[in-house]
Design goal:
The chain contains nine helices and ten strands. By secondary structure, it is an alpha/beta fold. Helix 3 packs parallel to helix 4.
Length: 287
């Protein structure tokens, strides 16, 4: 996150108090990143409001530019501008549709998370990040190259956010329950699964310098455990990664992430492996 030179901040004109901008100022205040404020609107009649925001930010010492744009849909507009401006992070506030769908992300948010080549920070709460827990979700059981690179990225971003928010990094690692039908006998017993997983966790802890007090190893489905642990620790931000499902460029986020994101009460930072980001850049360029 320290390497991010430019942040795209999606501004919603009808919401005066921009939580996305609040988070962007916190990050840019530490990293000195440039802020590019974007209003996605066909009418282009928000120059006055953007001018006021820009003047206030410049007065506070931030580097800032503004833009009004529209191309087909909200997520396509955001990605077009992100690509054109070379922004390394997109920050957008999540606005619940209705009380019935209060937790659920809007289709526009989902499409942005699936197709955006860079990390996306979805702001779901107004609470301060200061002195709070930053929770990183990892899949320690998957040690293939793609997952290993993603783990490094997740932990690095987690440490960066904890550092700039003066918070505390915690890691949640969910491991599968026993499967009586498993061909490998060690996957049939809870004790042997946990023992094997703990062993993998120790290697992970040594690599990333995470002590036992900050690692939470739980048995069960990740889509239940991650929101549960985020709630229990009162996490300010949950950092999760998504790995591509081969051949499905339009469905980069697996079911676990979809359920997790809707259930989380914290802000969410979504990261993708480098290979996936590269693929999405190609798609964005072709588009």
């Amino acid at each position: 996150m320290q390497a991010i030179r430019s942040i795209l901040v999606v501004i919603e004109p009808e919401h005066a108090e921009s939580l996305a901008l609040k988070r962007a100022k916190l990050i840019a205040g530490v990293t000195q990143a440039h802020l590019h404020l974007l209003v996605c609107d066909k009418k282009h009649d928000h120059a006055g409001m953007l001018g006021v925001l820009k003047a206030a930010l410049l007065a506070d010492g931030y580097s800032v530019t503004t833009e009004q744009a529209w191309n087909e849909s909200l997520h396509e507009t955001i990605i077009d501008v992100q690509q054109a401006e070379g922004c390394g992070l997109v920050i957008k506030q999540h606005f619940p549709d209705s009380s019935l769908k209060k937790a659920l992300l809007t289709p526009a948010d989902w499409k942005l998370l699936r197709h955006c080549p860079t990390p996306v920070l979805l702001v779901k709460t107004s609470a301060s990040w200061k002195d709070r827990v930053i929770l990183v979700a990892v899949d320690v059981g998957n040690a293939d190259g793609e997952h290993r690179h993603l783990h490094t990225k997740l932990i690095d971003h987690g440490y960066d956010i904890a550092s700039l928010a003066k918070g505390h990094l915690h890691v949640i690692a969910a491991h599968p329950s026993p499967m009586l039908s498993a061909a490998d006998p060690t996957l049939q017993l809870s004790e042997t699964i946990e023992a094997r997983y703990r062993e993998q966790c120790r290697a992970f802890q040594a690599e990333f310098d995470i002590d036992d007090a900050h690692l939470h190893v739980e048995e069960g489905p990740a889509d239940v455990l991650i929101p549960f642990m985020a709630h229990k620790l009162q996490a300010a931000v949950t950092v999760i990664g998504t790995v591509a499902r081969t051949g499905l460029s339009g469905a980069l986020i697996g079911n676990t992430a979809e359920v997790v994101l809707d259930a989380l009460e914290s802000d969410v930072l979504v990261l993708k492996p480098q290979e996936v980001e590269d693929h999405l850049v190609e798609l964005a360029v072709k588009h």
